[in-house]
Amino acid sequence: METELELFKDSKRTMLIVDDEEVNRLLLGNIFSNDYNILEAEDGEMAWSLIQENKGLLSIVLLDLMMPKMNGFDVIKHMQSDPATAQIPFIVLTSEKSMEVESLRLGAADFISKPYDMPEIIFARVDRTVRFFEHKQIISSVERDELTGLYTRRFFLKYCELIDRFHMESEMDGIVADIDQFGLLTEIYGNSVAEGVLKSLSDVLHIYAGQHGGIAGHGEGDVFYLYVIRSEDYEKLTKDINERLRADFPNANIHVRLGIFKRESKSVGLVDVFQYAKIAGDTIKDDYQASLAIYDQQLRETTLFKQRLIHDINQALETEQFVVYYQPKYAIKGERPVLCGAEALVRWIHKDFGFLTPDKYISLFEQNGLIQLVDRFVWKKAAFQVKDWENRFGFTIPVSVNASRIDLFDPQLSETLTELVESAGIEKKNLHVEITESAYSEKQETMINAVKKLRESGFILEMDDFGTGYSALNILGLIPIDVLKLDMSFVGKMHLSPENEKIIEIIMNIASVLQVEVNAEGVETEEQLEKLKTMGCDMVQGFYFSRPVSAEDFEEIIKKEQEAGK
C-alpha cells in the first residue's frame, strides 16, 4: 500500500497569497499556479476570513506585513491564537530587512524579499517549506485515536482518499455524528462517563463501517466520521447507536445526531463532504425528536446563501449596503411621552438579494465573528449621527448600540468606543451600549470585567432582552448597568393573564431595588402604554410610536418633538 506521503504527491495543494498590491499577487500567482490552487487577499481582514474558511485545506500562506485594515502581524496573532490555524505554515513577504528577524521570531517559516525577481528560488523555498511541514505533521501524527481506536481525522481523510482511488465505482456517503450537549454531559457525570460514552459510540460506528465497506474516524471532542458504501436506510444505524448507549448508560439521556451527505460525484472534495454532513447534522441540534438529517438541495441553497453573505460582507460595508435605522424611545413618567433617545438597528440592502431582515445574517455573523465588523460600522454611524443632529437641531438624542458577545471578548473595547466618541465629538453618555442578557451565560468573569470597564469609562450600559436569556438574577448584583430593557415578549403577553402582569411588576421592583431605569420594548397599543406607566416604567419604544426608520425620517420625529415642546 502507498504511504501517506505518496498518496498526495501528485495532488494540488492550496496556497493563500496576501498582498495589498495587485501586481505582487499576480507575480506570485504566476509562479505557483501550475502547482497550487491559489487564493488571494488584498488586506488582513480578508486574509483572516479566508484562513478561517479554508483552514482544513491551506498548505501555505504567503503574507505581506504592511497592509490596510489589518496588518500582517495581527493576522499572525490571530492564526496563532486558534489551534486550527496555528499549524498552517506562513512565509513573510517583505522589502524591509529589519522585519525579517521579527517575522521569524513570531513563527514565520521563512521570508521572501521584494521585488520578486527570482521565480525559481522563490518556488524552491516555498516548496521546501510546504514539504517540510507535511513531513513534520505526518511524523508527529498518531494514526489512531488513543481513546476510541478509530482513525484520527487526518489519517481518516487519507484512507478515504485511498478508498476513492481503488473503488472508483462505489457510491459512498459521508456521515458526521455529534453528541448534543456533550459538555454538559461531562459536567454532570464526569470525565470517565463521558469517555465511556465516546468509546461506546465509537464501537458502534466501527462495527457499522466494517459491515458497510467503509471506515470510521474520530475528530475533536464528540465528533465522529463515517465513510461508507451508500445505504438507502440509515435508521438501523441510529437504532444501533441508541440501543447501545441506553444499555451502557441507562440513566443518561444521550442524543446523537447524524448528518449525512450523499456523495453523488467525486468532484466534491472529501473535506467538503464532511463539512456538508456536519451542516446537515447541525440543523437538528438539540432536537431530541430527530436523529438524522440529510444534506439536500434546500439545505444546499441555504448553505450557499450563507456563504454568499459571508463573502459579500466586506464589499457591503465598503459600499454602505448596510443602513442604520433608528427606533425612538420615549420617557413616559411625565404628562406626555417625551422623545428621550433611540436604538440603532442595522438593515442590509443587498445589491442582489434586496432588503434582508436581520435574522438572515446577524446570527450567522455572530457564529463566525464577523459581527464585529457590522457592530463597528453601526457604532460609527450612530455616533456621528448624534453629532449631526446636535449641530442641525440643537437637540441631543442619545443612541443605543449593540455590543455582541464577541465584542466583549475584545480587551480594547472600551478604548475603541472612547476613540470613536471623541472623533465624533459627542459625550460618552450619549452613546449607550446594549448587552444581551444571554452574553453572560459563558465566561462570566470576562464579560463582567468588560462591562465594568465600559461603565467606569463613562458609557451608559443597558441590558437587552432581560428575562429571556440566562436569567441569573445574581448577575445583576455583580454588573453595573443603568437600564433594564424589558423584552417585547413580556409586553405582548401582558394582557393575557394577571400572572403576566405580575411578572412585569416583579421586574419593575427589581429595577427599583437596583436603582436602574426600565425600558419596555414592543409597545403597540395605548392600553399597554398606560399599564406600563401605572407600573412605574421609565421608557418605552415600539410600533405605537414608530417603527425603526431611516435617519432622514427620524428627523421628522425630532421636529415634531420640538414643536410639542413649545
Shape: globular
Count the beta strands: 20
Total number of helices: 23
Helix content: 40-55%
In CATH, what is the homologous superfamily of the largest domain?
Answer: EAL domain
What can be said about the biggest beta sheet? Answer: 8 strands, mixed, barrel
Number of domains: 3
> Which stretches are poorly predicted, pLDDT < 50 over at least 5 residues?
1-10
Tell me the CATH topology of the largest domain.
TIM Barrel
The level-1 CATH class of the largest domain: Alpha Beta
Element layout with pairings:
Elements: H1 4-7, E1 13-18, H2 22-32, E2 36-41, H3 44-53, E3 58-64, H4 72-81, H5 83-86, E4 90-94, H6 97-105, E5 110-113, H7 119-140, E6 151-152, H8 153-166, E7 172-179, H9 182-189, H10 191-211, E8 215-218, E9 224-229, H11 235-248, E10 256-262, H12 270-282, E11 292-294, H13 297-318, E12 322-331, E13 338-350, E14 354-356, H14 362-368, H15 371-393, E15 399-402, H16 405-408, H17 413-424, E16 431-436, H18 444-457, E17 461-466, H19 473-476, E18 483-486, H20 488-493, H21 498-514, E19 517-520, H22 526-535, E20 539-540, H23 551-565
Parallel strand pairs: 1-2, 1-3, 3-4, 4-5, 6-8, 10-11, 13-15, 15-16, 16-17, 17-18, 18-19, 19-20
Antiparallel strand pairs: 7-9, 7-10, 8-9, 12-13, 12-20, 13-14
Characterize the structure shown.
The chain is an alpha/beta fold. The chain is about 50% helix and about 20% strand. A hairpin with a 5-residue loop joins strand 8 (about 215-220) and strand 9. The longest helix has 23 residues, at about 370-395. Mean pLDDT is about 85; it is low at about 1-10.
